[in-house]
Each structure stands twice: as C-alpha cells, then as structure tokens.
Design a protein that fits this description.
The chain is an alpha/beta fold and about 150 residues long. It has one domain: HUPs (Rossmann fold). It contains five helices and five strands. A five-stranded parallel β-sheet has the order 3-2-1-4-5, with helices on both faces. Bound molecules: adenosine-5'-diphosphate.
Length: about 150
Amino acid sequence: MKSIAVFPGSFDPITKGHESIVRRASGLFDKIIVAIGVNASKKGMFTLEQKQKWIIDTFKDLPNVEVKSYTGLTVDFCIKEKAGYILRGLRSNADFEYEFTIAQMNKLLQNHVETYFLLTEPQYSAISSTIVRDIHRNGGDVSRFVPSGVQL
Ligand code: ADP
C-alpha cells in the first residue's frame, strides 16, 4: 500500500520552513499532499488561488508532491485522500505544546492516522508565515524567507 502524507496548514504564505519540511519528507513517503486549510471565519492575507500557485511553483520539481485545499477536519480529509499520515513541522517548545494536543486529539478521532513530526532546520526556526506577513505589511524585504518563486 502507498504511504500518503497530508501536510496541512494555512501557508499564508508558504515559507522556506514549510518548503524544507516537504522536501525532506518527500523521500519518506510515496506521496505528500500539501493541504491548504480553508477556514471561513479566518481570513488570511493572500487568496487561496495565490497560495496554491506559489506552492505548485515551489514543488514543480517534485513529482510526488500535490497541492489541494480542504475544509473541515484534517483527519476527515486524510480518510478522503486515503492518507495514513499527517506531517507537521516543529520549531520550538511552543510548537510542541500546540502540536501535541492536536496530534493526540487526531489520534482519538482516527486511530490509524499517524502524525509524523520533523524538526525544523536551524536556519529556519525563526521563520513563520505570521512574521513574514508582518515584515511584508511594514514594507520589509521577505525574499530570504520564502521560496524563490514567491513574489509578494
Ligand atoms: P497552521 O496554521 O496549521 O500552523 P502553518 O502554515 O503556519 O499552518 O504551518 C503548517 C506547518 O508547518 C505546521 O506544522 C508548522 O509547525 C510548520 N512550520 C511552519 N513554519 C515552519 C518552519 N519555519 N520550520 C518548520 N516547520 C514549520
């Protein structure tokens, strides 16, 4: 059976931190679905279409990486896509605290969907979409923090 992992997130916008997690995991799974969560009550800075375009462009050299969007529970999306794994990245203790609870709850909801974590590479541990948006909003240059095809 194929190993399929879902990498869920807001990707508002995709950063070099996200890119690194997907590239490193692309050799570990047969297929990775980068899944943009759409939350009607949480409006981001960039449109779904724009976020999707940047992710497709970032991974155009990786044939086993796909991009999709979803609403609702991540575990339900995993079932729909026949994915047995959720992939997440960890930057800090704060990420761990947050991710621990979500992963435990997902396990209670769907026992056979396993969450796999990769630690961030040290050069990316300070990068988050939130900080990238803040820098961009205030006129700073974020090109060092996002994949090369992402022109904000
Ligand atoms: P969410 O809103 O679900 O946290 P994000 O788009 O912010 O979505 O993040 C998606 C995933 O990518 C999360 O697992 C997050 O911890 C991870 N991630 C974000 N930035 C980095 C980074 N710089 N290095 C490693 N992982 C990261």
